[in-house]
Amino acid sequence: MYVWPCAVVLAQYLWFHRRRLTGKTVLEIGAGVSLPGVLAAKCGAEVVLSDSAELPHCLENCARSCQANGLAEVRVTGLTWGQVSPELLALPPLDIILASDVFFEPEDFEDILTTVYFLLQRNPQAQLWTTYQVRSAEWSLEALLHKWDLKCIHVPLHSFNADGEHLAGSTLPGRHTIEMLIISPKEEPS
């Protein structure tokens, strides 16, 4: 299975902050092969992996990753971005939401942030830890974050690169910048 560079960067961030994961409840959305979620589980988090309810093969990939890593306790569930489903409502209280390269197609951005907003409203102390590959300067999350009353902190990759090696480098032609963001609800004015 191929692991996308964004998943590697998010996993590196998790490993750097592994002591913060113990006892936390973590949801990975758009999990695919589930590298970040599997690592979070190995670091002591209670993890739920999710991918598209409409793509059973993606859910099978999540389950295979759990099986290969001896993680029978990790739950795998299908979620469809932008839809409130029984599976979404059945999620436990969350501390962290992980998302690796889910901001791939601009037509999905709104549905993703709708789901994230819903989850953060139910879990106001939670944060979305996400990595994404910048594919076009014309695609921006800023307006949607403002619309959904969410704030964003950019995390410099060098701030969690403990071994000094270049993170998620690419030999592909063109621009392949990876960004790390922490998204959370804006504080209510007092």
From TrEMBL:
The gene is METTL23. It is found in: Cytoplasm; Nucleus. Interacts with HSPA5, HSP90B1, TUBULIN, UGGT1 and UGGT2. Interacts with TET3. Interacts with STPG4. GO terms for molecular function: DNA-binding transcription factor binding; heat shock protein binding; histone H3R17 methyltransferase activity; protein-arginine omega-N asymmetric methyltransferase activity. Belongs to the methyltransferase superfamily. METTL23 family. It catalyses: L-arginyl-[protein] + 2 S-adenosyl-L-methionine = N(omega),N(omega)-dimethyl-L-arginyl-[protein] + 2 S-adenosyl-L-homocysteine + 2 H(+). PANTHER family: HEPATOCELLULAR CARCINOMA-ASSOCIATED ANTIGEN (PTHR14614), HISTONE-ARGININE METHYLTRANSFERASE METTL23 (PTHR14614:SF164). Histone methyltransferase that dimethylates histone H3 at 'Arg-17', forming asymmetric dimethylarginine (H3R17me2a), leading to activate transcription via chromatin remodeling. Maternal factor involved in epigenetic chromatin reprogramming of the paternal genome in the zygote: mediates H3R17me2a, promoting histone H3.3 incorporation in the male pronucleus, leading to TET3 recruitment and subsequent DNA demethylation. It holds the Pfam family Methyltransf_16. One of its GO terms (biological process) is epigenetic regulation of gene expression. Keywords: Chromatin regulator, Cytoplasm, Developmental protein, Methyltransferase, Nucleus, S-adenosyl-L-methionine, Transferase. It comes from Ornithorhynchus anatinus (Duckbill platypus). This is Histone-arginine methyltransferase METTL23. One of its GO terms (cellular component) is cytoplasm. SUPFAM superfamilies: S-adenosyl-L-methionine-dependent methyltransferases. The keyword S-adenosyl-L-methionine applies.
